[in-house]
């Protein structure tokens, strides 16, 4: 059993909860996901089943899109609404923040920027997640790192009596924390800020309208979506046999990782050119041994 599940994750569920349900529904332990979503977040969660779990890193590293709401006026220890309030701005300060100032500060996040991940994150520190260390009472300091935000737009601003709600849309590369944008916007405005809503609408190449709730999501064969992730190479039966024995075949026509499909559209392998002696050949870097079975896609 190999393929992808495109899930619209509900709120108040961990990504692991979704994986556990998929394992039970499909009666297999070989299920993983492409990029964690916080429990409060909803939206696109791509699950890989069987050999497709080995393809998930290529999806995880891609582009993502989000719709989010930031609350200005207070900070929390998790940088979202689930955390304890650690700072609250005065109503006078909140009322002095204009829409123009918010928009100007938001625009500074576009491009290649330095971002410090939230201390309550899935980032591993010496083998243990940051959020687990924080829960255990440890004081941690995660260093800044480069992230790329392709697009960030203010959709709506609402001025409340003790807060300002800012709806934004974000297109970014892997590793960007939307919670950190909320925190850093609040810091720039000296008001404090945290995330109150987050919905992921894209895990490239998969869009939200392709997703279903976990118990309604259907297994999609690898062959139906592989061309959206990799360049496709059609191989002959003799080449397939060579690959299944772990041998190289004639080089790919392009550089980078290529997906090999047989004459029946079965996913056979990922291939990448490498120098073997003085000759350039296509070497298998992942082989789908189940493609030997008839009808396995």
Distance between the termini: 9 Å
- The average pLDDT value, as a whole number, equals 92
CATH domain class name of the largest domain: Alpha Beta
The figure for the number of domains is 3
- The portion of residues forming beta strands comes to 35-45%
- Give the oligomer, counting copies of the same chain as homo and different chains as hetero: single chain
CATH architecture of the largest domain: 2-Layer Sandwich
- Gyration radius (Cα, Å) is 23 Å
- Uncertain segments of ≥5 residues (pLDDT<50)? none
Largest sheet: 9 strands, mixed
| Helix content bin | 10-25%
Could you characterize what this model shows?
This protein is an alpha+beta fold. It has 3 domains: 3-62 and 204-220, Pseudouridine synthase; 64-203, 2-Layer Sandwich (Pseudouridine synthase); 227-292, PUA domain (Archaeosine Trna-guanine Transglycosylase, Chain: A, domain 4, Roll), CATH 2.30.130.10. The protein contains 8 helices and 18 strands. The chain has helices at residues 15-26, 56-60, 91-95, 99-107, 130-135, 178-188, 222-225, 237-244; strands at residues 3-9, 31-33, 42-49, 64-72, 74-76, 85-88, 111-115, 124-125, 128-129, 145-159, 164-172, 193-203, 206-207, 231-234, 249-250, 257-261, 267-276, 279-287. The strands form 4 sheets. Strands 1, 2, 3, 4, 7, 10, 11, 12 and 13 form a 9-stranded mixed sheet that branches. It has a 5-stranded mixed sheet with strand order 14-16-17-18-15. It is elongated. The chain starts with a strand and ends in a 10-residue tail after the last strand.
């Amino acid at each position: 059993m190999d393929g992808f599940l495109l899930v619209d994750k509900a709120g108040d569920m961990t990504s692991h909860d979704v994986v556990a349900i998929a394992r039970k529904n499909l009666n297999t332990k070989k299920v993983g996901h492409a990029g964690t979503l916080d429990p409060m977040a909803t939206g696109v969660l791509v699950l890989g089943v069987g050999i497709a779990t080995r393809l998930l890193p290529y999806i995880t590293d891609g582009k993502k899109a989000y719709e989010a709401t930031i609350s200005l006026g207070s900070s929390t220890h998790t940088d979202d609404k689930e955390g304890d309030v650690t700072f609250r701005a005065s109503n006078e300060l909140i009322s002095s923040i204009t829409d123009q100032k918010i928009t100007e500060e938001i625009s500074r996040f576009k491009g290649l920027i330095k971002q410090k991940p939230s201390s309550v994150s899935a980032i591993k520190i010496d083998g243990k997640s940051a959020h687990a260390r924080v829960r255990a009472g440890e004081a941690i300091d995660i260093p800044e790192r480069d992230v790329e935000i392709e697009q960030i737009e203010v959709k709506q601003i609402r001025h409340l009596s003790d807060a300002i709600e800012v709806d934004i849309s974000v297109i970014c590369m892997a590793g960007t924390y939307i919670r950190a944008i909320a925190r850093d916007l609040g810091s720039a405005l000296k008001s404090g800020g945290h995330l109150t809503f987050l919905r992921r609408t894209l895990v490239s190449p998969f869009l939200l309208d392709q997703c279903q709730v976990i118990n309604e999501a259907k297994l999609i064969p690898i062959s139906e979506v592989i061309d959206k992730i990799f360049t496709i190479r059609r191989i002959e039966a003799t080449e397939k046999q060579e690959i299944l024995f772990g041998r190289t075949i004639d080089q790919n026509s392009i550089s980078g990782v290529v997906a090999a499909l047989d004459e029946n559209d079965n996913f056979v392998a990922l291939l990448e050119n490498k120098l073997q002696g003085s000759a350039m050949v296509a070497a298998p870097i992942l082989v789908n041994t189940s493609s030997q079975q008839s009808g396995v896609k």
